[in-house]
Design goal:
Layout: H1 3-27, E1 39-43, E2 48-52, E3 69-73, E4 95-97, E5 105-106, E6 120-122, E7 130-131, E8 142-144, E9 150-152, H2 154-161, H3 167-171, E10 175-178, H4 195-242, H5 250-259
Parallel strand pairs: 2-3, 3-4, 4-6, 5-7, 6-8, 9-10
Antiparallel strand pairs: 1-2
């Protein structure tokens, strides 16, 4: 056996092993890419990862998610907030499941960076009461918002106004509380009042009442001041009248008689 044959016989298995490691690294996420408590599996049809973090007792959204995540399940956890740009960089994300969590509100940039690709967004069974008026504006996904204690106000009315393509989702929004008491417990779409103008009118009324109160205080002070001055003037005049008249001097009397 020549030296070349010997070298090839020993290097060929090493090359095959190296190729296998490279293929495994490309086909499966490393432990550092997949968040703790989650399962990451590559989807050959969608050319990305299905990441499942369901029932993992998470209290916040994992910060290190595979950038080519296609399906992300975060349901049945204890997540209380969705920070702005929490999913920024997940440009292949098609489905996001945040149901059965403790989310209470949504900011303007909660879903920033995934508007173009997201197809399904499940926010059902949370504690959402309010959202920023532009929280859903750029989303084209089908949004599920059932079973949330919504507070129906101007911001929610504007947010739902930007969900014209999600009429089904808007129809499922029930007012747990509302600016209008007679709307509590009713579907939000049954509200035929412009809540934004209602809030503006309420503010205008409050300002008017405040201005009237200040004006009344000023008038009251002026009236009090005038009456007080009149009273002081009257007392001073009475004091002057009460003073004894000054007797005439003898020299003055002589001068008068001389003149006569």
């Amino acid at each position: 056996m020549t030296l070349l044959d010997l070298w090839l016989s020993r290097s060929l298995p090493m090359c095959l092993l190296l190729q296998s490691l490279v293929l495994m690294a490309l086909c499966f996420p490393s432990a550092s890419m997949c968040p703790k408590g989650c399962i990451c599996q590559r989807d050959p049809h969608l050319h990305g990862f299905n990441v499942s973090c369901s029932q993992s007792r998470l209290k916040e959204i994992p910060p290190s998610l595979p950038l080519d995540t296609v399906l992300l399940r975060l349901d049945h956890n204890q997540i209380g907030a969705v920070p702005d740009q929490a999913f920024h960089g997940l440009r292949l994300l098609r489905e996001l499941n945040l149901s059965y969590n403790a989310v209470e509100t949504l900011g303007e940039g909660a879903f920033s960076g995934i508007e173009a690709t997201l197809q399904v967004l499940d926010l059902s069974h949370n504690r959402i009461t309010s959202v920023h008026k532009d929280a859903f504006t750029r989303l084209k996904a089908r949004i599920i918002v059932d079973d949330n204690p919504w507070h129906c106000d101007c911001a929610l009315q504007q947010a739902i106004g930007g969900m014209a393509h999600n009429h089904e989702a808007a129809a499922r929004v029930l007012c747990r509380s509302s600016e209008l008491r007679d709307q509590e417990g009713r579907p939000f779409l049954a509200v035929d009042t412009d809540l934004c103008n209602l809030a503006k009118r309420t503010t205008d009324y409050a300002m008017l009442v405040t201005m009237f109160g200040w004006f009344a205080m000023v008038i009251s002070y002026v009236v009090y001041y005038v009456r007080q001055n009149q009273e002081d003037a009257r007392r001073h005049l009475e004091y002057l009248k009460s003073l004894p008249s000054k007797p005439k001097k003898p020299d003055e009397a002589d001068d008068i008689s001389t003149v006569v």
